Task: inverse folding
């Protein structure tokens, strides 16, 4: 199955505006790592987005109710607001936006929009030619940090559970249930129908959790509501079938196909949350509604969608075909339905029915799967961390140390006594952790810790699984193994867990299977002695050491190094420290490239075009992506660039003084606070920097 093109959209608040960061990735065959094609940032007014969305919802609500209204028909009304919203989100004044829009328009395959917000009606954006939801097989995936049940693939729909009119106040929902059941039944699908008082919370969950007769399809038509902070499907007893209740299905998995027609009290936010809940529990294809849909339109859309899906078309194509078939209806029903999930997915696969995969790492991706050995690892990790509200890097380290081969390798290196001490240190740290995985929660943590939800993964753990998934894909594999997780854990630096290893003299790289046999690797990572004090004694490093003796605790003499050389060595130390290792030749050379060493540049450029390309590659290896910068740093760099462009600096490029001024002039920045903390008056520093420009 080909991967869809993916438009990643990350939204962050920026005071009165919000920042939309886009990147477009072109899909390929499964296992390929799609290349980054385009990336840029746009400042967006959230009020304008909400206003356009409100007008779109009003137009849909009027059309569903059969109200003609004084203005143009629903199609023209939707196009008007969809066009305005498209122009605001993809403004022509941005240098690269034209190419991105061109690529989107030219895309002929399915398109997945991955985003962390629910405000934008992506399907109804209008590019001047047509709506995106009619031009593309479009699906949505909400970025989240919840572990996901892998679910089960199916080659056919054999059984369906149909629930509706649970409160007895929606005769149209009762009629829809009857039509859907009859339509599916005519095609040989066994249907269980629960209406009114038969549709209690207990009865519906009992059916969904059945171990003997799993359902392949779940169709709901009724109220979707929010109460006491929980969003759910309203059952007969007015109890909500939400994500907490759906956790009962974690061993079985939710039906692979779910259709949620939320009526009356439903809004897109509530329905989106419910669709997300079904996806977390393993559903592959989930269709939800934006607003209440006209009775006949809802039934016709469901029939067209199911017909296309059962005929073997992917979910995105099935939804698009249903939209196209209903486009001319005056009730505008086509515009209210949203596909959540991979638009390239269909009802086909090789996973035996009734054999869902256990919860796995999200990394904002609801389709990550784990190999059996990794499943066992994560079961232990989740079980051990349940009382602490989440999984941190230390929890993952404890799980890895529970792997027999890793544990034996480390114990042979450091001895049973030190291994026991390491276990005690980890247990002591975890016994003190009570607020979730806040040891390495990254920028933005306010010290209060995340909600007490066992599904929460720390930033370090999320990065580990992102890296592990990339490694698996690079090998052409669709599932992540324990070996992938271990290699990724070392590659991302291990977070706080690496410090615990250091305390017991265990280099982070010792977790890898070849770290105790490759002498070259040992010297680079400090794992040669088994105590974390090994040194790389290559010719390059001898010049930096006062003697060839083993490393000690004293500071390295730096007086005889030039200012640029001092900066390079200190930067190498920072890189090595974040990785939990000593400075090796690899890290030192990486620091030369990252700091833009002019000496290295000239030497490499003497080798011609190949040397120039190699230098660009080396110098760009540590260049951050836009998402790696906090909003305040983004703002400071933008301010420094604007001042430079306005001719307020003496140099053609943005210099250090311009960036420092922009940082320090932000009175709320943590950088300014740092200056105060070390006894420097930021305002005096600003005046000094101003004179140096």
Result:
């Amino acid at each position: 199955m080909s991967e869809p093109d993916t438009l990643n959209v990350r939204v962050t608040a920026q005071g009165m505006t919000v920042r939309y960061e886009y990147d477009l990735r072109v899909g390929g065959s499964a296992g390929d790592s799609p290349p980054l094609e385009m990336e840029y940032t746009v400042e967006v007014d959230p009020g304008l987005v909400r206003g356009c969305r409100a007008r779109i919802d009003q137009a849909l609500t009027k059309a569903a109710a059969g109200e003609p209204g004084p203005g143009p028909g629903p199609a023209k009304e939707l196009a008007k607001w969809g066009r305005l919203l498209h122009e605001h989100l993809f403004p022509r004044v941005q240098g690269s936006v034209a190419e991105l829009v061109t690529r989107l328009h030219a895309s002929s395959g399915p398109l997945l929009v991955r985003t962390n917000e629910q405000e934008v009606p992506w399907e109804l954006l209008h590019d001047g030619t047509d709506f995106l939801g009619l031009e593309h097989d479009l699906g949505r995936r909400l970025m989240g940090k919840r572990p996901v049940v892998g679910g089960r693939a199916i080659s056919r729909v054999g059984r369906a559970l149909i629930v509706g009119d649970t409160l007895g106040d929606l005769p149209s929902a009762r009629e829809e249930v009857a039509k859907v059941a009859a339509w599916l039944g005519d095609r040989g699908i066994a249907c269980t129908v629960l209406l009114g008082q038969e549709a209690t919370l207990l009865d519906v969950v009992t059916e969904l959790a059945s171990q003997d007769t799993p359902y392949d399809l779940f169709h709901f038509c009724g109220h979707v509501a929010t109460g006491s902070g929980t969003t759910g499907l309203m059952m007969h007893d007015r109890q909500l079938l939400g994500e907490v209740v759906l956790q009962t299905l974690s061993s079985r998995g939710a039906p692979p196909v779910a259709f949620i027609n939320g009526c009356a009290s439903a809004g897109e936010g509530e329905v989106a949350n419910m669709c997300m809940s079904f996806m977390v529990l393993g559903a592959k294809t989930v269709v939800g509604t934006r607003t209440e849909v006209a009775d006949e339109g809802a039934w016709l859309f469901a029939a067209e969608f199911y017909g296309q899906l059962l005929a073997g078309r992917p979910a995105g194509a099935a939804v698009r075909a249903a939209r196209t078939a209903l486009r001319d209806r005056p009730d505008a029903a086509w515009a209210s339905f949203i596909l959540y999930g991979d638009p390239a997915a269909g009802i086909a696969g090789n996973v035996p029915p009734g054999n869902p995969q256990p919860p796995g790492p999200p990394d904002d991706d609801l389709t990550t799967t784990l190999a059996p050995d990794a499943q066992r690892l994560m079961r232990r990790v989740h079980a051990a961390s349940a009382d602490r509200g989440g999984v941190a890097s230390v929890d993952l380290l404890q799980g890895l140390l529970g792997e027999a081969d890793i544990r034996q390798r480390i114990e042979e290196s450091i001895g049973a006594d030190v291994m026991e001490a390491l276990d005690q240190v980890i247990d002591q740290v975890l016994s003190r952790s009570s607020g979730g995985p806040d040891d390495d929660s990254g920028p933005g943590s306010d010290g209060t810790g995340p909600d007490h939800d066992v599904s929460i993964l720390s930033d370090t753990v999320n990065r580990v699984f992102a890296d592990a998934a990339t490694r698996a894909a690079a090998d052409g594999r669709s599932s992540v193994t324990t070996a992938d997780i271990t290699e990724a854990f070392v590659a991302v630096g291990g977070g706080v867990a690496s410090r615990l290893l250091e305390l017991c003299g265990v280099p982070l790289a010792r977790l890898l299977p070849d770290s105790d046999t490759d002498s070259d690797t040992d010297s680079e990572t400090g794992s040669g002695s088994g105590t974390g004090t090994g040194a790389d004694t290559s010719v390059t490093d001898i010049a930096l050491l006062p003697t060839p003796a083993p490393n000690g605790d004293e500071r390295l003499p730096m007086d005889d190094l030039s200012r640029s050389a001092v900066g390079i060595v200190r930067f190498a130390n920072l890189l090595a420290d974040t990785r939990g290792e000593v400075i090796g030749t690899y890290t030192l050379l990486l620091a030369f490239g990252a700091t833009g060493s002019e000496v290295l540049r000239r030497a490499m450029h003497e080798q011609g075009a190949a040397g120039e390309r190699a230098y660009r590659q080396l110098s760009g290896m540590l260049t951050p992506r836009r998402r790696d910068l906090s909003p305040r740093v983004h703002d400071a760099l933008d301010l420094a660039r604007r001042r430079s462009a306005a001719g307020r600096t003496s140099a053609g490029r943005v210099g250090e003084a311009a960036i420092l001024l922009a940082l320090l002039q932000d009175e709320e920045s943590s950088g300014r606070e740092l200056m105060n903390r070390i006894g420097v008056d930021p305002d005096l520093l600003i005046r000094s920097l101003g004179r140096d420009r």
